[in-house]
Amino acid sequence: MLLGSQLRRLREARGITREAAGYSIRASESKISRMELGRVSFKTRDVEDLLTLYGIADEQERASLLSLAREANVAGWWHSYSDVLPSWFPTYVGLEGAAALIRAYEVQFVHGLLQTEEYARAVVRRGMAGASEADVERRVALRLERQKYLVSESAPEFHVVLDEAALRRPYGDREVMRRQLQHLVEVSEWPNIRLQVMPFGFGGHSGESGAFTILGFPESDLSDVVYMEQLTSALYLDKAEDVAQYEKALKELQQDSPGPSESRDLLRGLLQLS
Q: What's the pTM value of the predicted model, to 2 decimals?
C-alpha cells in the first residue's frame, strides 16, 4: 500500500493517466489501479519502467522505491497460517500489523486482539465447526501472535467499543468467561488501550450496521482503511467519504458510551455477576 500510494503520487504529479501508465508496462489501466491500491505484487521491471516514465532519475530515490517493491513481495509471517484462514483475512492481518491506530466496534464477541486463549479457542471452534483440533489450535495460535502487536516496541493505539452483548454472550464455560472479563479489566489499564462498553441501557446507537474496524497508518499519504467481515468475504473501504462515515459512527459510539474508567467499573460489575 505504501509503495502503491507513492507510485500514484508520482504519476499524478506528472499528469499521467492510469491508461498511459499501464501502456508503458504492457498492462491495463485496472492493473495500475490495483498496484496503486497495494492489491497486487510488484514486478521490479514494472516499477523501474514506471519510475522512468514518471521522471524519477535520482539513483537514491529509485533504489529506495525498488527496495520497497522487493519488501512488498515478501510474504508476512501470517502466510504460514493461510491453510486455516479464509482467503480475505491475511490481507487484514498485514494491515493490522502496519497500523499505528486501530479503532473498532464489536458486538458479537470480544475483539480478537483482547481475547484470552481459552475464549479464543471457544470462538474459533464455534466458527470452524467440523475442523480438526490441529486446525483450531493453529487458528488460535495466529490470534495470540497478533496480540503481540499490542505490547511491541511499535505498539499501536487501540481504541475499542465493545457492545455489552459481546460481554454477556458466553463462549466457553463460566470460568472461561470470568477469566475473559478479568483480562479486559486488566488490559483496559494499558496506556495504549482505550476500552469502552456500550451498555444495553443506552438503547439504539450508531453501531447499527454491525462490527467494523478502522485502521490508520503512520505514513501520511496512506488513507485509513475500514474493514468489515461478512459470512463469505470481507469489505475493505478506503474512499475518504466511506471512511468518514465510519469515523463519525465510531466517534458517536465513543461519545455515547461510558468513558474508560466507568466502562472498567461496568466490567467489574459483570465479573461479580458471573
A: 0.83
